[in-house]
Amino acid sequence: MTRTANRLLVMLGIFILIAASCGEDEPEPVDATGVKAAWIYEGTVSDIGWNATHDDARIIANDATRATTFAVENVPGEGEEFANIVRDLIITDKINLVVGTAFAHQNSMEQLAVEFPDVVFEHAGGFKKNPTNFGNFYGRMYQPRYAAGVAAALASPSGSLGYVAGFPFPEVIRGINAFTLGAQSVNPEATVEVVWTSSNNDPAVETNAANALVEIGVDVIAAHQDSVASGLVAQQNGLRWVGYDSDQRDAAPSAFLTATVWNWSDRYIDVIESMARGDHEIGSYWGGLDEGIVGLAEPSGLTDEQGEKVADVLAKIAKGDLGIFDGPVFDQSGALRIEEGARLTDDDLLAMNWFVQGVVGSIPR
Q1: Domain residue limits at 230
Q2: 129 with 7, same domain?
Q3: Mean pLDDT of 256-281
Q4: Considering the domain boundaries, does residue 85 fall inside one?
Q5: Global pTM?
Q6: DSSP states of 136-199 as a string?
């Protein structure tokens, strides 16, 4: 099965919310042939991870809108080389939409947006923007991370879980905390050991980090990484694995438990069609399970009852009935961080710099 087909199945049907109702008129088709867009990747689209998810979505958006799209691989995250490549695409190929997919792209994109005010720049995962032609977008990955924690605790005989993490950004910290809280909703004594790699895609470093978790004695390894190295370590040691980015079960089938996954296609179609209509709004988009931009790969190796529990958690999150960071929540020191009846705001989530109780490890400062 292709990566695209896997991605289209990951939300198990009940999590795909159908907006159309019986008798509703079909929307007017949009002629997006005037949109020419370039997706810029720091790595390659064959990584079975971050870049692959974006390029799968680019292809879907290309076919759905009839826009002209390009994939440009192995572009440095920032600096003059990045800027020159993008300038050439704009001047020579008449690109009018640039999608940057590496975190470091945003600095150069911010400058290029001033240089080319008639070009739309959209950045995945960043925080920089301007009010006219430079926006950003992301997904609430902490939502499926919580459900992945539920699955991990259900699959763990010991309650000792591990997490291979990249950089200590709020996004990563949110994910670790959500995973821990999800696990503790099943097993209040569950703990999550964290090992940092200071990388997003370095298989050798990730292998060492996962092996360190094996030595600690965890029985499930989760990862916020773009390679499948931690899954290979889990499989070699008879452990379970929670992947990231896409449904990666084929990489380590006996270890695979589930994966938190991206589905960017609807967002890309919306951007292209709104540009074609002339009503594209620049801003910060942060979608969740309810909008389908994030999801959870179908769990493997759980009983039917356990699978239904994970599905129920996902459905409640998507409907807004279950808040990931609803109080009371305590931090590692035992201090009350979220009072009973309270829920963290988006500003709080975007600035998260503390671990919940049950996380073992510290945040590099």
Answers
A1: 142-261+294-360
A2: yes
A3: 97
A4: yes
A5: 0.91
A6: EEEE-THHHHHHHHHHHHHH-SS-EEEEEE----HHHHHHHHHHHHHHHHH-TT-EEEEEE-S-
